[in-house]
Amino acid sequence: MSRWRVPVLMYHAVCPERSPITISAGEFAWQMRWLTDEGYQVIALQTLLRSILGGTPPPERSLVITFDDGLESLYTDVLPLLEGFGFPATVFLVSGHCGGCNDWERQPGSIPLMPMLSWEQIREMDVKGVDFGAHTINHQRLIQQSDQEVERQILGSKEMIERKLGHEVDLFAYPYGQLDDRVKGIVRKAFIGACGTKLGFADENSDPFEIKRVDIHYFKHRYLFRELSNPVGLLYLSLRRPLRAIRTALHP
Ligand SMILES: [Zn+2]
Q1: Which CATH number applies to 5-250?
Q2: What is the pLDDT of residues 232-252, one digit of tens each?
Q3: Which end of the chain is more exposed for a tag (fewer CB within 10 A), N or C?
Q4: 134: Cβ contacts below 8 Å, ≥ 6 apart
């Protein structure tokens, strides 16, 4: 039994389209308000990593907010809310698509085509305190790539974001949550921590290079979101885990 556990929420886009990776701005705002009212302390992913590595528990009722891919709605709809609530967040960028759209190869048909953040928007968000991490150059399924391509995708995305922002980038998220020892070994050399997509909470036993997250897709309903850290939410999470594995296996 771990002494503490922290939900690391995984969002993608905040927009009106309904899909497995979207949530409306109204619902997102409701969730942020609820977290505030319930006394959650939204902490930076680096703060959580320090607790995992150092063994010091994070503050009571801590929670981390992350966004994968770097879609433009983060600038238009999410940034004002994060600023308003004073919440930190980490955004994992698909560096080769910034300023374009999420039209990478083998994107499932259930995912709408959406614009991505421009480098100008990213720089403004960076100045305002949003953390940026790497999520490869082209959203590749890394375990299917050659050693050379894996290195290019991981290190190339880090270098591109660092060049555009003018400072170090030390966090990574695996596209589709796909990794093996080879992929993790390269990530370990270049970053201080990385997020996967396995459903679960972070705790003191977490692997800093495969931090479990809570895909908000499964907690969109207000009733479930309210139960996030309660026994009902934990039970639901444990039931969703095998379904999530099936979903990933069907869309490899
Ligand atoms: Zn992604």
Answers
A1: 3.20.20.370
A2: 777 777 777 776 666 665 544
A3: N
A4: 92, 93, 95, 154, 157, 158, 161, 169, 171, 172, 173, 191
